[in-house]
TrEMBL record:
It comes from Paenibacillus odorifer. This is ADP-ribose pyrophosphatase. Its cofactor is Mg(2+). GO terms for biological process: nucleoside phosphate metabolic process; ribose phosphate metabolic process. Residues 49-176 form the Nudix hydrolase domain. One of its GO terms (molecular function) is hydrolase activity. Keywords: Hydrolase. GO terms for cellular component: cytosol. PROSITE patterns: NUDIX (PS51462), NUDIX_BOX (PS00893).
Length: 190
């Protein structure tokens, strides 16, 4: 994923004519692209550029490790699987292990890529690489200086209840719960 026109249909492609940088922040940047549409007309596209991220569905004794932290855009706390952005040039597998350890204190030598997906392809290029491990081992946390969170473990039933209650409302964690549920039914991480 991430390659331009990976499964593109040329008759639907837009051609970028120009790019105007608007904002360059610590994590994201924003640009406005002028594009030529398939019918020859032009339009503008606001695009958020993101370095990509990793997330980990980590199971310990058949319970999913989650962190609860405040999310400024939502103005509330959110229960999520451990996750974080990729550092420049960082291998996603390495980042997944790092984020799992930093946020939960757990570690695993058998992280497996479950799926990579785009979060909001209508306006952002952020891709999340979702990893899974069924063999998370406890250790020591090492949070970033601006991270404040609580770690807990949920059964599959509790995870579904958290989703019903709105305590889990982000796509990566919901996808992880559904993948875990499918695994319990099939024995496969597909």
């Amino acid at each position: 994923m991430g390659e331009q026109h990976l499964h593109s249909k040329p008759e639907l492609d837009e051609v970028t004519l120009s790019t105007q940088p608007v904002f360059d922040g610590k994590i994201i940047s924003l640009q406005v692209d002028t594009v030529r549409l398939p019918d020859g007309n032009t339009a503008t596209r606001e695009v958020v550029k993101h370095p990509g991220a990793v997330a980990v569905l980590a199971l310990n004794n058949n319970k999913m490790l989650v962190v609860e932290q405040y999310r400024q855009p939502m103005q509330r706390t959110e229960v999520e699987i451990p996750a974080g952005k990729l550092d420049k040039g960082e291998d996603p597998l390495v980042a997944a292990g790092r984020e799992l350890q930093e946020e939960t204190g757990f570690h695993s030598g058998d992280l497996k890529l479950l799926k990579s997906f785009y979060t909001s392809p209508g306006f952002a290029d952020e891709i999340i690489h979702l990893y899974v491990t069924t063999n998370a081992q406890p250790g020591d946390m090492s949070l970033d200086e601006d991270e404040f969170l609580e770690v807990s473990e949920l059964t599959l039933e509790e995870a579904y209840q958290y989703m019903a209650d709105g305590r889990i409302a982000d796509a990566k964690t919901m996808m992880a719960v559904y993948a875990w549920h499918l695994y319990t039914l099939t024995g496969q991480w597909n």
